Each structure stands twice: as C-alpha cells, then as structure tokens.
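Structural prep section.
Before we set up the soaks we want a predicted structure of the protein with 0WD in place, mainly to decide which crystallisation condition to try first. Input record follows.
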Amino acid sequence: QQLLKGKNILVMGVANKWSIAWGIAQKLHEAGACLAFTYQGQKSEENIRKLIHGTMPEAPLIPCDVQNDQDIEATFQQVGEKFGMLHGIIHSIAHAKKEELEGCYFDTSREGYLMAQEISAYSLVAVTKYAKPLMTGGGSIVTLTYLGGERVIKNYNVMGVAKAALEASVKYLAVDLGKENIRVNAISAGPIKTLAAKGIKNFSTMLNEFEEKSPMGRLILTEEVGNTALFLCSSLSSGITGENIHVDCGYHILG
Ligand code: 0WD
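Run finished without errors. Recording the tokens verbatim:
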C-alpha cells in the first residue's frame, strides 16, 4: 500500500547507514514518498550518495548545517525549486560535546550548553519557520527525542535538557501550525547503536540494561522507528499533533 504516494518529504540527519534517519527514509521510500536529503559534511554526503544509489538516485542532496540560518534558508529555497510543495520533514539531528555526556550535569560549559540547545532543539524551530511557506497543503513534521528529556538518565546530561526543550518546542509548534493542518510530533526512541549514541559514555551498558528491563525484553529496531515515522507522515495519523510517541518496547512505563 503506497501510503505516501505523491508526498514530498525532506529527511535531515542521515550520517551513515546506521542513522535512524536512514531507517526512516527507507520506510518512507517504500511507501511511495519522494525524498530529498540534507547532510552535514563531506563524509555524510558520500555515505548518502552510496545509500540512495540503487533505490532513489534522483533524490536531491542539499548541504545544511543547522547552526547556520543561511544554510536553512537556502535548503528550503532548493526544496521549493525541486518539489514546489513540501508535505513532510524528518528532523533527526542532535549534537553535544562528547566530554559533556558524562560526569556531573553542573560541569556543563556555557558554550556546550548553548551548542547542544542550538543544534538539537532550536534547529527544529528554525527549520519549521522556513519550511512553513512550502507546506501549503498541510503536512507533518517529525523529530527524534529520547527519554532523557523527561527523566534523568545517567550521562545524558546536557542532551537531556536539550531534548526537554525539543519536546516543549514540539507542543508550541503544534499550536502555531495546527490550523494550517501542519502536524508536529516527536518519536521517543529506545537506544539504538548509531554514531551519535557512541558519544554517550557507557552506551553499551545502557543497551544491556534496556534489553534486560524493557517490557518486551529486547532492543528496539531502527525499522520500528521508521514505521512510526511513516505512520506520522501519513493520513493514518491525521488527528495526532503535539504528541511524543514512545517507540521503546515499553521501557518508559517503568518507574
Ligand atoms: O539511541 C539513539 N541512537 C537515539 C537517538 C535514541 C533516541 C533518540 N535519538 C535521536 C538523536 O538524539 C538524534 O536527534 O535521533 C536523532 C538521530 O540520531 P542518530 O541516528 O542516533 O545519530 P546519527 O546517525 O549520528 O545522526 C545524527 C546526525 C549527525 O551525525 P553526527 O554523528 O555526524 O553528529 O545529526 C546531524 C549529523 O548528520 N547533525 C547535524 N546536521 C546539521 N547540522 C548537525 C548540524 N550542525 N550536527 C549534527
């Protein structure tokens, strides 16, 4: 069933084949969506080129560092030129200094705090602002978050605080855009071994603990996050906005 036939969706945050954004992109593509990708840095560009080679060689690849407003503006100008109308955005971007993903939260530097907020939370706001004029037929904006935004999770520190800001932004943006039928939601994914996750101290311990404790007794699969993103981009979720859907084998219900 081609749930996303005729839909144009921008995927932001594929770094390599392990990226959650790539897991999502594959599901959107299978559902008939027309995709464009943004990347940061040459390595990611090369990786994406290889990944899309067989299946969607025509997909536009646009450089975009979300710390730069001009990049964001230029991205949506290009998306407008290629697609005309935009129906969806996958925002799968986050970053913090590795040394601040361990130890005590009070040791977070001013610079590190601002950087984590800027890349991981503010970027959703800026992207939404520039995307809105292209989403004239309504649409769906999906971002990725983690339980560390709701609860204290060891070593997640500055990123947890950035995710809390991201989750609050989802709600404010949902109100801003609701009447235009643009929905804004987050997926709170369980831990998945990716490049970004490697920055968190003792990440493999976190994976083991998750597997042991989660109600379903296993880790989450990237394709399960992909399926949820597909649902959120499709009309099946037409009544859902401002929501944070946990795709975590039920881990968040535990005290
Ligand atoms: O366990 C996990 N992996 C979870 C990840 C659990 C729950 C949520 N998430 C979130 C992350 O916090 C992030 O928001 O999912 C999102 C995607 O993360 P990922 O797929 O785990 O990691 P990765 O493949 O590294 O993609 C994140 C990418 C960056 O990768 P690197 O590793 O190069 O920082 O975000 C992009 C970049 O491609 N990124 C930027 N893009 C544009 N401008 C920027 C920037 N300034 N900084 C990072």
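Observations: Residues 13, 15, 18-21, 40, 44, 64-67, 92-95, 119, 144-146, 189, 191-192, 194-197 surround 0WD (CB under 6 Å).
Flagged for discussion at group meeting.
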